[in-house]
Amino acid sequence: MTVLGSGEAADLVKAKSVLLESNGRHHHGPEALRAALVDLHDFWLSSRCAALGVGGEGSGTALAAVGALGRRELCPWSDLDLVLLYDGRTDVDALAEKLWYPLWDAGIGLDHSVRTPGQAVQIAATDLRAALGLLELRHVAGDATLTGKVRDAVRAAWRAGMRSRFDEIVDTTTDRWRRNGDVAHRTEPDLKNGHGGLRDVQLLDALATAQLVDRPGPDVVAARALLLDVRTELHRLSGRARDVLRAQEADDIATILEAGDRFDLARALSGAARAVAFAAEVGLRQARNALPRRGLAALRRPPVRRPLDSGVVEHAGEVGLARDASAAKDPALVLRVAATAARTGLPISAGTLSRLADTAPELRAPWPRTALAELLALLGTGKAAVAVVESLDRTGLWGRLFPEWGAVRDLPPRDRTHVWTVDRHLVEVCAEAARLTTRVARPDLLLVGALLHDIGKGRGGDHSVVGESLVRQIGERLGLREGDLVLLAAMVRHHLLLPHTATRRDPEDPATVSRVLETLREAVAPTGRGDADVALLLELLGALAEADSLGTGPGVWSPWRRTLIQGLAGRCLSALDGRPFVEPGPPDPAHREMVGAVTAAGEPQVRFAGDDDVASVTVALPDGRGVLSAVAGVLALHSLQVHTADVNVSDGVAVETFAVTPRFGGLPDPALVRSDLVRVRAGSLDLVQALARKERDYAPSTPEVERTAPPRVLWFDDEATGAVVLELRGTDRIGLLHHVTAALERTGVDLVWARVETLGASVVDSFGIGGSPDRSARSEIEKAVLTVAAGRGEARPTT
Fold first, then answer.
1. What does DSSP say about strands 80-86 and 762-770: parallel, antiparallel, or unpaired?
2. Which residues fall within 8 angstroms of residue 103, CB to CB, at 6 or more apart?
3. What was the pLDDT predicted at 781?
4. Hey, which residues does 617 pair with through a beta bridge?
5. Domains of the chain, CATH where assigned
6. Cβ of 248: how many Cβ atoms within 10 Å?
7. Is the pTM of this model over 0.85?
8. Residue 54: its pLDDT value, please?
């Protein structure tokens, strides 16, 4: 450390570099690294102050740290937040320049200020961000008494002014949550600013300083340590100040922290963030209730306890227990409190949750009918149930009701189209299902099935098969009748039957309908009620498929997915009772007109419908090899992102319908799209070169390109059409559909049909291939598709 005695900031940079290199080779742990970084910077700053004549006690000058350095949470690339305090010194500006400029010249991130005690208190009273920083003021060098005086004055002013600024605290916090999302559920969480991140821990400390809440408990302390450790390693590995954890760093950080793989780390982070988020939400409510009452408010009567339900009251804007309520005597009390909270939109008080957690026993099997009724009432409230279930889960009450929940709690999704952890996904799907209860004859089974449809995940094996066994156990515990148990188990076992069949088979073919009905008849055979239960199960599965898609992530329940799934379910129901099937949605007579125009003139026809949000593009042109890749390429050339696509052939005319959104701007002129399509078909427009230029326009602006999961190809046999189904799963990019279809066409395959879906940043594209290619041919086809899907080469289309 002697090299730091000169006070040169370059020495500080060198010493920090040596420290990071040493930690990288020997790795003493992120906590030890933070402590060493704090000691290093404290030593340099105190040495620099001594060299500049910043005196000790009684000198009236002090250097203090706030922010990460003030909290002793300094990560490798955190900025330094410093405050130069003075009381009566006249040369303070010159002194400040001698302190700050060496740090700036060395490229060290610095946030600085110069304050008298009065100025510090005044800025803390007017600037919320500055106030939160000054609450963490820590002495570094100079007059420690001055630092202590300022810290005490700022904290006293913070407590005194809390009533007048509390609404600003709440608004600022909720706005930050809205901007940065949940740490627990984001695939790339903001560890610092997100809901459940480190800023929320600082918020709890600030509320405790105001003497409105207790200091954070051990669960929040442990969560803070994990969040800090991950952020420390994120800084060290990336070599920059980073707060958003991305997938490419997560595996390395998980290995360093001995936390398994990135999915294990994501699960640990989710649990930690949810503990912090719950504590922050409860802390804000408790703080509001604890605010001092002044003026006329102090003369008003305290809030009364308003009855809401049996044993449940409202008090001070929260749901609480009546004085004589007892969970030991009333087995439905926990669920009644939860259902009441969801129904009224009021949060459950922390004291009530704690009391119930201490006194509520496990419900004996079978549950009392009142308990099952309250569960259904809770689940039927929709979105309001999400926060209530979260509060029950954070206090151990939900796991007491559903012990099987532990395997999916905080379990990260393996599919990037999912934006929630598995347990949150289940609750979100249940909330979506609550909107669909009027569509089905058994809304109770829809709600319970939605809540438990993925309960088999996290245990190994096919989650649908594992879940089928689990829900039978759960259903028996809930007190369901045997016939309902069969239906519930069948819902979980076959909740993917309609989506998978509709996207991998031809839903219009009678063989596809027969296959679905045969599967469902076998599933409900034990009830002895035959096709009546098959029809009921179809109804439930259709609603569950919609809710499951809506609860997965934005864009998953696309118009074309709805058409496919509802169309398949409708055809199956029609086959059961002999009713004629009506296509979902209004028919489009323009398709027939376009086919007639193409037949008459031999030229492509293009029509747009909808708006700039989600539009439908229909293209009709003479059928032949290369038509799908040509149209897909022209759409990409006009900056249209394809979300779904369907291809049908009628009277020698291919009619292709796409759901698209513009990547920027508005929809192109259909005449320009048609013109480019004519040029491509005539060979005067080279799509490969044109798309290569377009892809360069969308290339990342930084050399650091995010690694993505490698594409996969799956094969299925389509009994309905005799075709073989190739399903591609990969990451979307400009022109991907064009390149994949061109690769298929180049291999000489006969494309019978196509079902294309873009789910967020991922694609799941299915192609019906005629001719039943053998294993060798499939291998060549797969190689060609994977090559272009991975971006390692582009196939020139056949025209």
1. unpaired
2. 9, 80, 110
3. 94
4. 608, 658
5. 2-160 (3.30.460.10), 178-290 (no CATH), 311-401 (1.10.110), 435-585 (no CATH), 597-698+708-789 (no CATH)
6. 15
7. no
8. 85
